[in-house]
């Protein structure tokens, strides 16, 4: 299965981002804490250039805690300010504000030397589809401003959102890149829901997922789905799950699609626990 998803609105978004970058002071890049490498859009890094940047490992509640700590250190070792957050709960506003003020400290000091009491720091929030940008913005704004949804492609427009007296955030639609060369990257983006399920072969995706997670956290697959032999091909594991869960179609055939959708849905909803798919 060759996975790619780059609809026309993403190209338009890139063009607008390039224009708006001229008026922002910093970029806040949201990554999925489970897949920091795969969820980092290489085109965004090239586009933002030398702009101050804060990396936010979002959905940290879905990722392995120790692995996330290693990622934070990995970024720090490369002089990149990074924090891990769960945007579905409160209490992240002050953390984010401190990071913004930290990476923009030179500009703030300049304003103070000039005697400016009031000033604005403008930040652009960027990331792949379904990484939680709108939920993140609503959280630190303390109110529902940006439209949210646990599926890719919810945010369609670019909008400025005021956060307190000194910070404005620009929410942007999630964007991928035109051609995802590494299919292991594409698969992980699909696992976490950043590529529309309608474009995917769900049975093949779930087969790959079972094999990958079986290597990372075998006890979870064994205990959750009753798989006795994790050395089995992923399709065989799917068939076993169908037997264990009673997912049998008329005629006695295993309903692989139903099992595949269930497995990926459970992963996305944390029913499998904290699983990081990438380590630094």
User: What does the average pLDDT come to?
Assistant: 88
What is the CATH architecture descriptor of the largest domain? Answer: 3-Layer(aba) Sandwich
β-strand number: 6
Structural class: alpha/beta
Order of helices and strands: HEHEHEHHEHEEHHHHH
Count helical runs.
Answer: 11
CATH topology of the largest domain: Rossmann fold
Helix fraction by DSSP (H/I, runs of at least 4): 40-55%
The CATH superfamily title of the largest domain: P-loop containing nucleotide triphosphate hydrolases
Describe the structure.
The protein has 280 residues and is an alpha/beta fold. It has two domains: 8-171, Rossmann fold; 201-268, no CATH class. It contains eleven helices and six strands. It has a six-stranded mixed beta sheet with strand order 3-2-1-4-6-5, sandwiched between helices. The longest helix is centred in the last third of the chain and has 15 residues, at 202-216.
């Amino acid at each position: 299965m060759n996975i790619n998803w780059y609809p026309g609105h993403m190209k338009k978004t890139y063009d607008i981002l390039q224009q708006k970058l001229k008026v922002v002071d910093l970029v806040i890049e949201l990554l999925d804490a489970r897949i920091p490498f795969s969820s980092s859009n290489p085109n965004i890094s090239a586009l933002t250039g030398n702009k101050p940047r804060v990396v936010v490992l979002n959905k940290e509640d879905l990722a392995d805690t120790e692995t996330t700590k290693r990622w934070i250190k990995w970024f720090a070792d490369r002089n990149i300010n990074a924090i891990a957050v769960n945007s579905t709960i409160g209490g992240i506003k002050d953390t984010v504000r401190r990071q913004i003020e930290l990476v923009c400290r030179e500009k703030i000091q300049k304003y103070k030397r000039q005697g400016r009491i009031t000033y604005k720091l403008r930040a652009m929030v960027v990331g792949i589809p379904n990484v939680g940008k709108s939920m993140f913005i609503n959280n630190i704004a303390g109110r529902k401003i940006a439209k949210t949804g646990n599926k890719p492609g919810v945010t369609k427009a670019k909008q400025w959102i005021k956060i307190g007296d000194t910070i404005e955030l620009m929410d942007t639609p999630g964007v991928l890149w035109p051609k995802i060369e590494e299919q292991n990257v594409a698969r992980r983006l699909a696992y976490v829901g950043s590529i529309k399920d309608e474009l995917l072969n769900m049975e093949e995706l779930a087969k790959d997922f079972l094999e990958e997670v079986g290597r990372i956290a075998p006890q979870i697959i064994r205990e959750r789905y009753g798989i006795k032999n994790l050395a089995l091909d992923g399709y065989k594991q799917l068939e076993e799950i169908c037997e264990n869960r009673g997912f049998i179609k008329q005629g006695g055939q295993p309903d692989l699609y139903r099992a595949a959708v269930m497995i990926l849905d459970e992963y996305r909803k944390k029913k499998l626990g904290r699983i990081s798919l990438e380590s630094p």
